[in-house]
User: Which sequence fits this backbone?
């Protein structure tokens, strides 16, 4: 143990280069020198007690506030002042005195620990001045840029506002135009509808007439066919030759049944046959035509489709064997179908359909339709234009509603994106919109949060941006990102990190946060004490 | 960390295998066996107490000076066993039972005993057809061997201290040939699933038999089949403890200090397992196993050490367990005939019966008895008793640097910052991620400049990767554990497909140790230490998240050695750290898995706990249980590993952890950051304050670790250890002692406004360390608390040295002066010790470079005298202050050093009776006396 109630003779020079000597106990700042008067009793700075001066810096803590030991580590709550000539003065906790670690650049904290400290104040001072100088330049230029940004934002804001106003005016006109066109459209559609209905009705009637004609022709043909002996009558026996007409479907058309079909008569002439024909025409097979086959059910298509593998089964072999099993079953089904009815190709009744195609509209109707269609197109076009206009207005209004800072200096970031590529990922910041991360070598994008709010400290909330509700984390929260804004000439993402899982931190420089440089001070040493 | 982040496993496509990991915050019990699902446990437990089929063949008795041997026969199957009895120095008895002629050798656990325990002569006092009486030498102690049925009783005078096989539960499944290969074998062989089978079960043939056979030669749990080429090999033995109601130990379990009876539930299980989000207050197995149980009553403390490394289950029953306090009182009043008794039964899957019975009689005797068998706590570097800042993970060098700076900015001391698995390049241990940690030495140098240190994780699973040096060397040296077919065993762990080095192989361990050399572990420096996690071993896709039991370690099955694997990992790692400095510097290695003897290699923590109040509470009994069985350097993750703690819980956890031996904050990857300054200035201040209290007490902690290292006495201990006759202390586990002199009752309830602490010791006094207020012993004291309160008391009669100048790391405080806190007993007496060395080397041991002083206050004089006169160590530390609590005001204080007398200034606080001696100034290593006149 050594007695350490040393007085320091501090000799140094900063700006003037002339040595100045000021004596005071070790670790005392100049501002408090007057409390430490040599050879006079010392009163603790909290006034709690008074002790002989030789107990100041005697490496024993007498004052509760630690003020009697400014230069030793004796008091747990004390602090040590290093002058750090050439750099900036500072206080360190007295626990860092003689702890073997160089804290003060002027080495004064390690006077008895054996630590080999070098005075680095000049170097630090120089570096700091350089940095400050650079910073000041950046701030200066950045602030100029910021002013431009503010100007541009102002202009942009006005432009947008007037644009919105203009657009709202235009919109009104568009609204009217849409309404007018709607009326035109409705007016044109009424006659169109009536003409179309007329046309359709005429066609329906025509179709019915044709069908009647066809039926009559068929009946006549059938009569001729049935009337085997060509006596002008169809007799019971003649009818019996057409077994397909058997009403009870027992395979034979008996005499009685045939007579029944003929309305109880032995034979019928052509005019009476008219009442018989409706009863038999559905079953009747023309002798001249091949028998109409029964409709065949085609096997359902889906059965042949391969099974879609929705499961993420890890064993593809199993899937394959399963599929094979299913295929086998399918084939069995097929055979059963074959037994029931051989597959045949269905012949479409094309000719009939052709007959039944609706004839084109007549010229008058077509003219009405064309007119209505044009009115519809015009109306829809106008309506679309109105919707687009609405969207544009809404977008501009949304943009105008954002908090782009006290002077709208952050406006220029809107609709922009900035990227930073790291060893693994590409990070993308789209201010006021979202932050995302994409693996550099393939893989899908992860949302690290969408725009939440400004979240800086109370005195300047515009220093931090918060993006929230990104993609969820496994067993964790949704991803979120805090963007820290610092003054810079350029608008760049300078770093990203993930301090906590799924909570990202992005550093971003922009002129928009550059403060107006105070012309007064570029050097930190003005208040430096000597 | 046991948790699996599926996101992070990425391409490893373990999703299917690990779906069970995604469950909410609770252990998935279905992943771990109950006794019923463990074939041998089920078989053994089906045996009921009764007539034992074992008989001692007295005619085979052979007695040499140190050893008695005797054959036992199972009358059911005629298999002969060999019993060996040893009387060991220090009042211990060793009982070994093996097959007389096993088909092949059975596993006997090596490397746990520090040496073959020295024996003392046994002598036969009497012998007849019914048994033999042997003298155990001390105090009228006798060992009685009864022949039919076989039974051992240890007596002292007329009292039975402990009996073996008194309930007839000795059962030894002998090695046999599989029935398929032995066509001639009659049914008797098969149905006798447990050799101790009793008659009634013999009759029970047919259906039941096949089922049981399944478990004999093969066993399936979930999708894992355990082929059992050796068939049934389990062993079991029962112990009766007359007069005992309190048993402790057999960690690791997340349960109360006092062991519970296991009737109607599962036995306590000892099987090192990586249990994801473990549940509290149950007997499930956890990461480590120490098969040592302590039995205690007001008269005596004893211990049972069951030296077996296979899966083990311990059943406890008690004849008083069901009785209410009133019932017991009634017994007492009526002079009830029945003496309280605890019965214990150990069941292990393989190996032999090798039991050490430690007869105490005092708690400290049991500690030194156990220490004489398995060694003592490694004496850690002083810095490792400081505060450790850990997180899964500190992301990169920049992160490490900013956390380090954060501590300085907030003026909070710390000694170690830790790097979890993400620091390594693709989980290839011994490497560094080239992007995140490109300049490890620069980072370590930065920490060294602040006199701080780092720990990096090195787990025993090795990434199977032909581009990885460690893997290639292990492969080429053929050091991997093999599967049953003789190929390298592979399993999934953090890196994906991994091999597991065979740490039971001494050559493998020597090679592993050599990997810690500075030129092998690139980027390492002397301030880089090691953390062994996942060394149960954890195998994500293995049965019960560990290795298949039929995997092979040389000729032994994993089944035989499972519980000792983790010990070997830490042993080899600690050896490597010692070797890298040429044997000069002490290692520091933290392990999660452990076994008896692990205390010799470093620190243990309680694994992956959670940020919940109950987990904070359980940290106390968990570390107390470990301390009782040798592992003093114990701690729990401060703050809780899983989940996010509230600020209150975090503060309370710091306050608790600061008063537990191993003090480390740790957090899961998915938690939000929780460095001490992230919870607002008020909480930062509270945490700073308690970490500073820890640092001020480092001299005391260090001295206690030295004592633990020398004697095996636990550092953090239950009250009953120091107050063995005070029954009120027997179940206390919400408060504890640090050494003998500090009593801590942490606040572990949310929103607590007060705690009730039991202050033991009739006629003693305790001083509140914060206010110096004096309280009487043998009382329940209600203490109102605020968030800043940490109820801590110093025992009247003790002297505790502190370093009250707390600095940013323990190394910075090396030469700082001491303040002595002298707490007087009612008889105005106090004593304590002061231990000083360089804090980090083995020179204390190899060169006797330390100071060990006895401090005594008696007759108004405080004297420092040398406890080690032939030691040499110089310190620049001095005594800056002496506080005497409970003093009266002297007229004058004199200091005598080297025959010279000087007066010492003092102050006296009348309200608290505290005398403060101002700057006596003598060197801490000197002889001196302070006289109060």
Assistant:
């Amino acid at each position: 143990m050594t007695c350490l109630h040393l007085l320091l003779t501090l000799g140094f020079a900063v700006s003037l280069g002339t040595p100045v000597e000021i004596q005071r106990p070790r670790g005392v700042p100049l501002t408090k020198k007057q409390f430490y008067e040599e050879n006079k009793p010392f009163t603790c700075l909290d006034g709690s007690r008074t002790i002989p001066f030789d107990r100041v810096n005697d490496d024993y803590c007498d004052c509760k506030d630690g003020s009697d030991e400014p230069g030793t580590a004796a008091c747990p709550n004390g602090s040590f002042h290093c002058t750090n000539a050439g750099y900036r003065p500072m206080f360190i906790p007295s626990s860092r005195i003689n702890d073997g670690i160089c804290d003060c650049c002027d080495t004064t904290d390690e006077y008895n620990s054996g630590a080999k400290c070098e005075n680095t104040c000049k170097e630090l001072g120089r570096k700091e001045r350089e940095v400050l100088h650079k910073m000041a330049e950046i701030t200066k230029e950045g602030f100029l840029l910021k002013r431009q940004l503010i100007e541009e934002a102002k202009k942009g804001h006005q432009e947008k506002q007037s644009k919105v106003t203009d657009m709202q005016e235009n919109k009104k006109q568009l609204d009217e135009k849409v309404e007018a066109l709607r009326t035109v459209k409705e007016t044109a559609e009424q006659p169109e509808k009536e003409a179309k209905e007329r046309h359709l009705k005429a066609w329906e009637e025509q179709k019915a007439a044709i069908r009647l004609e066809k039926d009559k022709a068929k009946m006549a043909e059938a009569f001729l066919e049935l009337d085997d002996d060509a006596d002008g009558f169809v007799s019971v026996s003649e009818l019996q030759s057409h077994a397909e007409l058997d009403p009870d479907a027992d395979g034979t058309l008996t005499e009685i049944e045939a007579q029944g079909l003929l309305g109880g008569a032995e034979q019928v002439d052509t005019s009476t046959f008219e009442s018989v024909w409706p009863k038999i025409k559905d079953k009747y097979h023309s002798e001249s035509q091949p028998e109409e086959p029964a409709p065949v059910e085609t096997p359902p298509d889906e059965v042949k489709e391969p099974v879609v593998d929705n499961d993420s089964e890890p064993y593809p072999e199993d899937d394959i064997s399963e599929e094979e099993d299913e295929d086998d079953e399918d084939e069995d089904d097929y055979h059963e179908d074959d037994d029931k009815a051989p597959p045949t190709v269905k012949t479409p009744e094309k000719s009939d359909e052709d007959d039944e195609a609706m004839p084109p509209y007549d010229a008058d109707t077509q003219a009405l339709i064309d007119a209505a269609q044009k009115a519809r197109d015009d109306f829809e076009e106008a309506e679309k234009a109105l919707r687009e206009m609405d969207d544009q207005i809404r977008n501009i209004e949304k943009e105008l509603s954002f908090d782009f800072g006290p002077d709208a200096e952050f406006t220029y970031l809107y609709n922009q994106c900035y990227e930073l590529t790291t060893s693994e990922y590409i990070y993308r910041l789209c201010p006021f919109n979202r932050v995302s991360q994409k693996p550099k070598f393939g893989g899908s994008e992860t949302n690290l949060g969408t725009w939440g709010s400004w979240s800086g400290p109370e005195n300047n909330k515009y220093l931090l941006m918060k993006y929230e509700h990104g993609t969820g984390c496994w067993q964790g929260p949704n991803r979120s990102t805090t963007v820290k804004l610092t003054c810079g000439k350029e608008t760049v993402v300078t770093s990203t990190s993930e301090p906590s899982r799924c909570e990202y931190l992005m550093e971003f420089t922009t002129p928009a946060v550059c403060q107006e440089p105070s012309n007064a001070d570029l050097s930190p040493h003005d208040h430096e004490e000597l | 960390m046991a948790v699996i982040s599926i996101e992070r496993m990425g391409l490893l496509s373990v999703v299917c295998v690990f779906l069970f990991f995604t469950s909410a915050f609770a252990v998935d019990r279905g992943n771990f066996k109950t006794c019923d699902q463990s074939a041998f446990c089920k078989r053994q437990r089906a045996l009921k107490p009764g007539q034992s089929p074992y008989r001692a063949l007295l005619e085979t008795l052979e007695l040499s000076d140190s050893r008695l041997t005797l054959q036992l026969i199972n009358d059911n199957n005629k298999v002969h066993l060999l019993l060996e009895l040893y009387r060991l120095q220090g009042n211990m008895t060793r009982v070994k039972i093996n097959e007389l002629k096993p088909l092949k050798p059975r596993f006997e656990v090596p490397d746990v005993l520090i040496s073959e325990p020295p024996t003392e002569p046994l002598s036969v006092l009497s012998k007849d057809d019914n048994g033999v009486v042997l003298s155990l030498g001390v105090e009228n102690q006798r060992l009685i061997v009864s022949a039919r049925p076989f039974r051992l009783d240890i007596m002292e005078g007329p009292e039975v201290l402990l009996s073996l096989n008194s309930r007839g539960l000795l059962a030894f499944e002998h090695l046999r040939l599989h029935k398929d290969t032995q066509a001639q074998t009659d049914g008797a062989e098969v149905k006798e699933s447990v050799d101790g089978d009793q008659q009634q079960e013999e009759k029970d043939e047919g259906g039941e038999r096949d089922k049981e056979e399944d478990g004999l030669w093969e066993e399936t749990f979930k999708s894992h089949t355990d082929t059992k080429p050796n068939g049934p090999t389990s062993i079991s033995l029962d112990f009766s403890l007359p007069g005992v109601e309190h048993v402790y130990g057999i960690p690791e379990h997340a349960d109360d200090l006092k062991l519970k009876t296991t009737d109607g539930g599962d036995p306590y299980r000892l099987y090192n397992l990586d249990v994801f989000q473990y549940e509290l207050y149950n007997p499930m197995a956890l990461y480590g196993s120490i098969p040592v149980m302590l039995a205690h009553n007001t008269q005596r403390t004893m211990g049972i050490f069951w030296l077996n490394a296979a899966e083990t289950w311990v059943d406890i029953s008690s004849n008083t367990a069901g009785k209410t306090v009133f019932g017991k009182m009634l017994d007492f009043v009526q002079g009830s005939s029945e003496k309280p008794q605890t019965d214990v039964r150990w069941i292990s899957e393989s190996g032999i019966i090798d039991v050490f019975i430690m007869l105490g009689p005092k708690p400290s005797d049991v500690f030194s008895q156990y220490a004489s068998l398995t060694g003592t706590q490694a004496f850690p570097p002083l810095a490792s008793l400081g505060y450790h800042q850990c997180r899964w993970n500190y992301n990169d060098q920049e992160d490490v640097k900013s956390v380090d700076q954060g501590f300085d900015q907030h003026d909070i001391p710390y000694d170690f910052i830790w790097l979890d698995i993400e620091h390594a390049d693709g989980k290839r241990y011994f490497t560094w991620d080239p992007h995140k940690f490109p300049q490890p030495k620069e980072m370590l140098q930065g920490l060294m400049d602040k006199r701080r240190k780092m720990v990096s994780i090195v787990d025993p699973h090795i990434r199977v990767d032909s581009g990885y040096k460690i893997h290639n060397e292990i492969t080429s040296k053929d050091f991997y554990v093999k599967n049953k077919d003789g190929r390298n065993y592979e399993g999934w762990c953090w890196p994906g497909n991994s091999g597991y080095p065979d740490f039971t192989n001494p050559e493998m361990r020597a090679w592993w140790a050599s990997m810690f050399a500075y030129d092998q572990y690139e980027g390492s420096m002397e301030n880089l230490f090691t953390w062994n996690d996942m060394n149960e071993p954890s195998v994500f896709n293995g049965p019960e998240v560990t290795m298949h039991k039929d995997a092979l370690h040389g000729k032994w099955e994993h089944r035989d050695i499972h519980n000792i694997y983790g010990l070997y990992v830490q042993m080899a790692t600690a050896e490597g750290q010692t070797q890298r400095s040429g044997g000069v510097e002490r290692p520091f290695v933290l392990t999660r898995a452990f076994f008896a003897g692990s205390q010799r290699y470093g620190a243990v923590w309680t694994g992956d706990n959670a940020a919940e109040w109950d987990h904070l509470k359980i940290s106390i009994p968990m570390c107390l249980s470990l301390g009782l069985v040798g592992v003093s350097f114990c701690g729990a993750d401060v703050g809780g590993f899983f989940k996010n703690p509230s600020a209150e819980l975090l503060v309370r956890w710091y306050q608790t952890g600061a008063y537990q031996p191993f003090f480390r904050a740790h957090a899961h990857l998915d938690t939000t950051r929780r460095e001490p300054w992230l919870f607002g200035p008020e909480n930062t201040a509270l945490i700073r304050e308690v970490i500073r209290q820890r640092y001020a007490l480092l001299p005391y902690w260090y001295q206690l670790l030295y004592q633990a290292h020398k004697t095996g006495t636990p550092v953090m201990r239950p009250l009953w250890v120091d107050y063995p006759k005070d029954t009120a202390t027997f179940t206390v586990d919400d408060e504890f002692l640090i050494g003998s002199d500090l009593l801590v009752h942490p606040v572990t309830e949310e929103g607590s406004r007060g705690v009730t602490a039991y202050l033991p010791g009739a006629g003693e006094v305790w001083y509140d360390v914060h206010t110096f207020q004096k309280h009487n012993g043998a009382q329940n004291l209600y203490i109102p608390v605020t968030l800043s309160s940490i109820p801590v008391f110093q025992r009247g009669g003790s002297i505790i040295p502190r370093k009250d100048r707390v600095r940013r790391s323990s190394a910075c405080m090396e030469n700082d002066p001491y303040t002595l806190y002298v707490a007087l007993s009612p008889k105005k007496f106090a004593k304590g010790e002061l231990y000083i060395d360089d804090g980090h080397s083995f020179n204390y041991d190899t060169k006797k470079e330390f100071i060990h002083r006895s401090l005594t206050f008696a007759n108004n004089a405080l004297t420092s005298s040398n406890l080690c006169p032939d030691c040499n160590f110089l310190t620049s530390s001095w005594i800056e202050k002496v506080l005497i609590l409970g003093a009266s005001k002297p007229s004058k204080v004199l200091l005598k050093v080297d025959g010279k007398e000087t007066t010492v200034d003092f102050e006296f606080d009348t309200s608290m009776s505290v005398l403060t001696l101002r700057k006596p100034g003598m060197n801490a290593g000197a002889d001196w006396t302070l006289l109060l006149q």
